[in-house]
Design brief:
By secondary structure, the protein is an alpha/beta fold. The protein contains 5 helices and 8 strands. It has a single domain, classed as Dihydrofolate Reductase, subunit A. The chain has an 8-stranded mixed β-sheet with strand order 4-3-2-5-1-6-8-7. The radius of gyration is 16 Å and the shape is globular. It starts with a strand and ends with a strand. Residues 3-175 form the Bacterial bifunctional deaminase-reductase C-terminal domain.
Length: 183
C-alpha cells in the first residue's frame, strides 16, 4: 500500500509560495541528497490543477542540467486533482475529479493499488485538502532559516491539525529537515 507524502520548501514564517525567490541560497549537496532520496522513493506524483498546468508546459521541454528530473517527472504516473480541467495531455497524466467524497475514494483506491510513495509537492491548497480528508500520511518540510514576510503560508486560515514528529535532522546550511505524520 502506498502512502501520500507531501514535500515543501518552507520558510521560518511558514511561507511556501515562490520558493524559487528565497530557497536557492540554501540548496547544496546535502539538501540535494535529501530531495534525491524523496524522488527515488516516489512511484507516482499527485498535483493540483495549477501545478499541473505550470509543470506540463515546462518539464516536457527540458534538457541539459534538468534532464535527470525531467526524465523522472515526464515518465512517472501523475494524478491531477481538478474539477476544471477536462483532459490531461502530459505523458502518463490522469485526471481525478468529482465531489470531495468521489475524489477521496479514488485516492484511497489509488493508495491501495500502488506501492511506494505518492509524492505531492507545491500546492498548499492540495495538502490542506488531503489533511482535512485524512489522506495525507506524511508531511516533509525543509524549513529554511529565513523569514520571507509575504506569500502563501502552508496553514493559513486552516483548522487545527495535530501532527507528530517522526524524523528530524539539521542540515549544515541551517535548514531543518522535518517529517510529520497526522497525530
Amino acid at each position: 500500500m502506498a502512502k501520500i507524502v507531501s514535500n515543501f520548501f518552507i520558510s521560518l514564517d511558514g511561507v511556501v509560495e515562490r520558493p524559487d525567490q528565497w530557497h536557492f541560497p540554501y540548496f547544496d549537496d546535502e539538501m540535494g541528497a535529501v530531495v534525491g532520496r524523496g524522488v527515488a522513493a516516489t512511484t507516482a506524483f499527485l498535483m493540483g490543477r495549477t501545478q499541473y498546468q505550470e509543470w506540463s508546459e515546462f518539464w516536457p521541454n527540458q534538457s541539459g542540467d534538468d534532464m535527470e528530473f525531467a526524465s523522472f517527472i515526464n515518465s512517472v504516473p501523475k494524478y491531477v486533482l481538478s474539477n476544471t480541467l477536462t483532459e490531461t495531455t502530459w505523458q502518463n497524466s490522469h485526471l481525478i475529479s468529482g465531489d470531495t467524497d468521489q475524489v477521496a475514494a479514488r485516492l484511497r483506491e489509488l493508495k491501495e493499488q500502488t506501492d511506494g510513495e505518492i509524492a505531492m509537492s507545491g500546492g498548499a491548497t492540495t495538502v490542506r485538502w488531503l489533511l482535512a480528508n485524512g489522506l495525507l500520511d506524511e508531511l516533509r518540510l525543509l524549513v529554511h532559516p529565513i523569514a520571507v514576510g509575504h506569500g502563501q503560508r502552508l496553514f493559513e486560515g486552516t483548522p487545527t491539525y495535530p501532527l507528530r514528529l517522526v524524523d528530524s535532522a539539521t542540515l549544515k546550511s541551517g535548514v531543518l529537515n522535518l517529517t510529520y505524520a497526522p497525530a
